[in-house]
């Protein structure tokens, strides 16, 4: 996460860099408008998803500003942000399930227990290298 934060902050931290990155996105005809800033824990999934979606453009942009991050070329290292994006996305889903005015404590406990079971299932899938539930890792 730290490297992703560093890269995004270097692009978004300077208005010039931000404009140049937007121009690059337009030239590449990207459907995604811009990088997201990380603001709090529950947005990490969206932040990392956007970072991963824009990774080719980020690499190209970094090469134009002559900044190199060898980790972005390392497939083994890139599994970490992909996994974090997938798992925090699943945590966001649980968070949304737990919200609501008419949720009872029993329902919330049931949701949490179901999520624990889902984590066990996901762990078994990862051990078998089955990435159906992990779209960013599969990509």
Structure, explained:
- This protein has 139 residues and is mainly alpha-helical.
- It has two domains: 2-70; 83-138.
- 68% of the residues lie in helices and 0% in strands.
- The protein is built from seven helices and no strands.
- Helix 3 runs antiparallel to helix 5.
- The mean pLDDT is 83.
Précis, in short:
The protein is mainly alpha-helical. It is 68% helix and 0% strand. The protein has two domains: 2-70; 83-138.
Q: Which descriptors would you attach to this protein?
A:
139 residues, 68% helix, 0% strand, mainly alpha
Give a topology summary.
Elements: H1 2-12, H2 15-27, H3 44-53, H4 55-64, H5 75-98, H6 105-127, H7 135-138
Helix pairs in contact: 3-5
- Helical residue percent? 55-70%
Q: Could you tell me the number of beta strands?
A: 0
Most strands sheet: none
**SSE order, one letter for each helix or strand:** HHHHHHH
Radius of gyration: 18 Å
Number of domains: 2
Shape: globular
Beta-strand share of residues: under 5%
The end-to-end distance, rounded to whole angstroms, is 18 Å
Q: Flag low-confidence runs.
A: none
How would you classify the helix and strand content by structural class? mainly alpha
The count of helical stretches stands at: 7
The averaged pLDDT comes out at 83
